[in-house]
Specification:
The complex is a heterodimer of chains A (268) and B (247). Chain A has 268 residues and is an alpha/beta fold. Chain A has helices at 3-8, 39-49, 67-79, 95-105, 131-139, 161-166, 181-193, 211-214, 236-242, 248-263; strands at residues 18-24, 53-58, 84-89, 111-116, 144-147, 172-175, 197-200, 223-224. The longest helix of chain A is centred in the C-terminal third of the chain and has 16 residues, at 248-263. Chain A is globular and about 50 Å long. The mean pLDDT of chain B is 96. The chains are: A alpha/beta (268), B alpha/beta (247).
Chain lengths: 268, 247
């Protein structure tokens, strides 16, 4: 039976699905209304929709001055469950404490990498504030997941080229793959040109690219499934992959294998 | 599973990145994805006048039994807009719905601009589709709606950054509906149904600028009671878009 048919029958137990970009935790002061839901309920909803495991990002770390505390909370949560990995957090204004935390966590079995969000942290990929952090991640082979959006000058996909010029093999996941059309096209160009640049497909919702066409623009192993919940609903990106007319083998890669190969561990 | 799509379009050509764009291609995707009927809009701008593009939409809908959604321009230039008689015929006999583009056509819905057309829309109950994406702030639309309670307004392509505004519009004014193309907010269908009622939400895919799979999956895994899912999936479409008019 095809993966599409399994999805239509709500029988996804044999399809491995890993959500590589999952916000969790306090979310009540965002600039849009987000339906409040407890952490346990959020994770249960993911399961009901077909997702086996997630890579959590501490919502409370975003734009805050106590990101370290939020990451500690996230690590505790991940350790208390069997369906969750975690990203650490970095922002230049808390350099010392967050670098110490990353160093302490990087060998943790549930560690996925480090999330950065220049817009929310009122910083800029081009201003030098991330230089030491990027060097450390390149040296230690740590994946960096960055919020990218073409219309936001502080975190465009193309801003990573200055780091890739120095560290061409560093692992970068372009979060939302640059968002709008031009950002997605640029993200896929970089995925073609650089060995370890990956596209986090949740942002391509806004790109006027059907997934059947999108996968022709970059190597198949460069597309990573994620939902961006709880900013976004759990189901749309999942439906885009599961119900589309791309081959089942490619669906398996996007839904789980590509991120497993990127982080070098079995996730589901 | 059955769906009726309140926000479906076609092009006369296939833009890069779009898997199904022409009427035949989009119709095939509909057939494969349990979408029985659509409100069809001709999104082709180049090479056709508005009248020609709308005439093609009507002809296509006669073939497939869909609801024609016609691009409506204000009666500023007689050569491009409809006469009152024509508009009444389209709204009442052809059972058409209409779409305005406040930004793209620089023609926001106002009394001084659309004049008698507003009366025709109110009398006929022909739905007027408005792209929320084309607004940075819904206040002008809400102020207009306050003066025209009978006008049936379908807010399409909602924008999560305006979710407090569009929810308030549906709650505050009668005959305002939203469709699902851009309902990406967390637990969107469930939380919106609780807030505004499932009878105010129309299933829409936004094809061909995007795929239908996201919305179908949301419906498939929707955690609302079956009667509310049916309202969103097709019954609201039958009531608001089809309006019992034989096409």
């Amino acid at each position: 039976m095809s993966i599409r048919d399994l999805a239509l029958e709500k029988n996804l137990k044999d399809v491995r699905i890993f959500d590589a970009h999952f916000h969790i935790g306090e979310s009540r002061c965002t600039s849009i209304y987000i339906e409040p839901m407890s952490e346990a309920d959020s994770l249960a909803l993911s399961k009901r929709c077909g997702i086996d495991k997630v890579a959590g990002i501490a919502m409370g770390a975003m734009g805050k001055n106590d990101a370290k505390k939020e990451v500690d909370w996230l690590v505790d949560l991940a350790e208390s469950r069997d369906d969750m990995f975690f990203y650490a957090w970095y922002q230049p204004r808390q350099h010392k404490e967050l670098m110490e935390q990353i160093a302490a966590l990087k060998d943790h079995p549930l560690f996925m990498g480090v999330k950065i969000h220049p817009r929310e942290d009122r910083s800029h990929l081009d201003d030098g504030g991330y230089d030491q952090f990027m060097e450390y991640c390149a040296v230690h082979n740590i994946p960096v997941l960055c919020h990218t959006w073409e219309e936001e000058p502080m975190n465009r996909p193309g801003s990573f080229e200055r780091y890739l010029a120095k560290y061409p093999d560093m692992k970068i996941i372009l979060g939302h793959m640059g968002g709008v059309r031009q950002g997605c096209m640029d993200a896929m160009r970089m995925a073609r040109e650089y060995k370890n640049v990956y596209c986090d497909i949740n942002g391509s919702l806004y790109s006027e690219l059907w997934i059947e066409e999108m996968v022709k623009f970059a190597p198949e192993h460069k597309f990573i499934f994620s939902t961006d919940q709880t900013f976004n609903d759990t189901r749309p990106v999942l439906g885009r992959v599961l119900l589309s007319n791309i081959p089942d083998r490619l669906k398996e890669m996007i839904l789980c294998e590509n991120i497993e190969n990127l982080v070098g561990k079995k996730l589901v | 599973m059955r769906f009726k799509d309140a926000n479906c379009a076609f092009y006369s050509y296939r833009p890069e990145g779009i898997y199904a764009a022409t009427f035949e291609e989009v119709k095939k995707v509909c057939d494969e994805n349990f979408i029985e009927s659509c409100a069809w809009y001709n999104a082709t701008r180049a090479g056709k006048s508005v009248r020609e593009a709308n005439a093609e939409t009507i002809a296509r809908c006669k073939e497939c039994g869909g609801v024609p959604v016609l691009r409506l321009l204000p009666p500023s230039f007689g050569k491009e807009s409809y006469t009152r008689e024509e508009l009444e015929h389209l709204a009442k006999v052809e059972g058409a719905a209409f779409r305005i583009h406040p930004q793209k056509d620089a023609a926001p819905i106002t009394e001084w601009l659309y004049d008698w057309m507003i009366e025709v829309l109110e009398e006929s109950k022909a739905p007027l589709l408005v792209l929320v994406w084309e607004y940075e702030d819904l206040s002008p639309l809400a102020e207009f709606k306050a003066k025209h309670p009978e006008l049936v307004l379908v807010l399409t392509n909602t924008n999560q950054w305006l979710n407090r505004q569009y929810v308030a519009m549906v709650k505050k004014f009668p005959n305002v509906y939203i469709e699902t193309t851009n309902l990406i907010e967390y637990y969107a269908f469930e939380s919106l149904a609780a807030e505004i009622g499932a009878d105010k939400i129309l299933f829409g895919t936004g094809m061909p600028d995007k795929e239908p799979y996201d919305r179908i999956y949301q419906m498939l895994y929707c955690e609302l009671p079956e009667d509310q899912i049916e309202l969103i999936a097709y019954k609201n479409f039958e009531r608001i878009m089809e309006r019992g008019i034989k096409r």
